What we know:
This protein is an alpha+beta fold. Helix content is about 25%, strand content about 25%. The chain contains eight helices and 18 strands. It has helices at about 55-65, 95-100, 120-130, 145-155, 185, 210-230, 250-255, 285-300, and strands at about 1-5, 25-30, 45-50, 70-75, 80, 85-90, 100-105, 110-115, 135, 155, 160, 165-170, 180, 200-210, 260-265, 265-270, 275-280, 310-315. The longest helix has 19 residues, at about 285-300. It is globular. The model is unreliable at about 5-15 (pLDDT under 50). The structure holds flavin-adenine dinucleotide and uridine-diphosphate-2(N-acetylglucosaminyl) butyric acid (EPU). Flavin-adenine dinucleotide (FAD) binds near residues 118, 199, 237, 238 and 311. Uridine-diphosphate-2(N-acetylglucosaminyl) butyric acid binds near residues 158 and 229.
Amino acid sequence: xxxxxxxxxxxxxxxxxxxxxxxxxxxxxxxxxxxxxxxxxxxxxxxxxxxxxxxxxxxxxxxxxxxxxxxxxxxxxxxxxxxxxxxxxxxxxxxxxxxxxxxxxxxxxxxxxxxxxxxxxxxxxxxxxxxxxxxxxxxxxxxxxxxxxxxxxxxxxxxxxxxxxxxxxxxxxxxxxxxxxxxxxxxxxxxxxxxxxxxxxxxxxxxxxxxxxxxxxxxxxxxxxxxxxxxxxxxxxxxxxxxxxxxxxxxxxxxxxxxxxxxxxxxxxxxxxxxxxxxxxxxxxxxxxxxxxxxxxxxxxxxxxxxxxxxxxxxxxxxx
Length: 320
Ligand code: FAD
Ligand code: EPU
């Protein structure tokens, strides 16, 4: 999610220039590579790590007044940060308030409501649910991210998507006001929502008690299938492109003979062709050039324009 307070994300005269003018949880020129699964790219002009929703709301209001562009970073598992870095304010929700998880008791309808901060680790919550014999998140096996990022992207796959179990989402609007949305209001669709500029702060999930062994078996089935077909141990941001209606982008890229195609340190995975791996020493520009090559070759061969699933942050974010 990017709150675009200025057309090009440029700073203006109202913006504090010295880091001392921002709250103490804001640091200047902070490298972003360690905060993303691609592990490439440059720094954020400012990185903010607010501890509470109140601090976040103040920051959002200040950025709005100063017309500073604001990006929310989850686990950085669906992002490519450009080599020159990101202008504006990047916000990470990693304080304890944003990572807290409250496990409820079964209600009259049998559902257990689990309320978690947007910065909670998706894999951790999914595994804890498995251990408690709660069904609904086993489909998230093998998907890295935070709960906020997963909701924003409606993370999932052919096994299920997170939107299916989201009951409520608390968000901050770009004016700093807080609202609670029902799952239906979020408007979950294939890898998307209606959330726009809103920042997800808290999520309530509805999970169903089941035999712990049955939940565990389903989790392991999904995990094993992902491990067989995806390069889970390498530096990627998952599938680069969305699937065009009715077909798999990975299959098209594979059939175009692009597996293992390499530019600099970026390589199309030989395990799943919709994953581009950043090898040691890769630059974001290598990944960008390979993305452009894959799109050109798939368009030339099949007449299909592949649409990006990953987000590109930085100078090139309008180029692709
Ligand atoms: P980020 O990448 O940090 O951000 C993604 C978007 O969400 C950005 O627009 C960001 O601004 C926004 N965002 C993040 N947090 C918030 C918030 N609190 N409020 C508002 N906006 C926010 N995805 C799938 O759907 N299915 C898969 O099977 C899958 N497999 C993957 C496998 C691997 C190995 C990898 C590396 C990635 C995979 N992905 C998959 C992609 C990724 O895991 C998901 O998109 C995940 O939901 C991203 O979460 P994140 O916290 O890392 O979000
Ligand atoms: N295929 C190939 N070659 C490849 C990759 C796939 O021929 O290199 C074929 C497979 O053999 C299969 C078909 O394409 O017949 C579909 O493959 P797969 O089951 O891997 O599913 P996908 O459509 O490629 C989607 C999601 C994944 C998600 C999986 C499993 C998208 C863009 N991708 O992949 O999500 O993990 O289903 O549920 O929707 C992500 O979004 O980042 C992601 C990894």
